[in-house]
Design brief:
Layout (H helix, E strand, L loop, with lengths): L12 H30 L3 H30 L5 H32 L1 H21 L8 H6 L1
Length: 149
């Protein structure tokens, strides 16, 4: 892929962050599939089987996310607005399904130790509440109104 084929200026910081998160999730899930899959073939455990199935179901969506991301980077200037909207919707769906793989990760960790599993679930819930609070829309306060108060 040549420098001219990708409009580097069109990438935003939030797009790069999402890409990085998805890459980390893909790496984690691939490693879990490999190592826990080997362990599963030696010692069958039903909860591990279900967790691996959840993770395996998310892997194609993670790959499609990267394909969509690259396609939009290369062709954003030439795509009609409706097509871009559909690609953004598909990308968001792929992200949601990919994040769903964390359920499989949590199941796997709970299988290792109930304390590890419970700690992961509890901290995940707290992190979700924290990020939802922090990422909520911020009202811009007019300076004249702020001086009166």
């Amino acid at each position: 892929m040549s420098e001219e084929s990708v409009n580097v200026e069109s990438r935003t910081s939030s797009q790069d962050k999402r890409w990085t998160i998805m890459a980390a999730l893909l790496g984690t899930n691939t490693a879990l599939m490999l190592f826990q899959g080997i362990e599963q073939s030696k010692d069958y455990v039903m909860i591990r089987e279900v967790a691996l199935a959840i993770i395996a179901a998310a892997l194609p969506f993670q790959a499609i996310y990267f394909l969509i991301y690259t396609f939009v980077l290369e062709h954003e200037q030439r795509l009609p607005a409706e097509r871009l909207r559909k690609l953004e919707l598909a990308s968001a769906l792929c992200q949601v399904v990919s994040y769903g793989s964390l359920v499989g990760v949590a199941m796997m960790w709970y299988n290792l130790s109930s304390w590890v599993g419970i700690s992961f679930v509890a901290s995940s819930i707290l992190a979700i509440f924290l990020i939802r609070n922090v990422m909520a829309p911020v009202e811009v306060v007019d300076q004249k109104t702020a001086d009166v108060v």
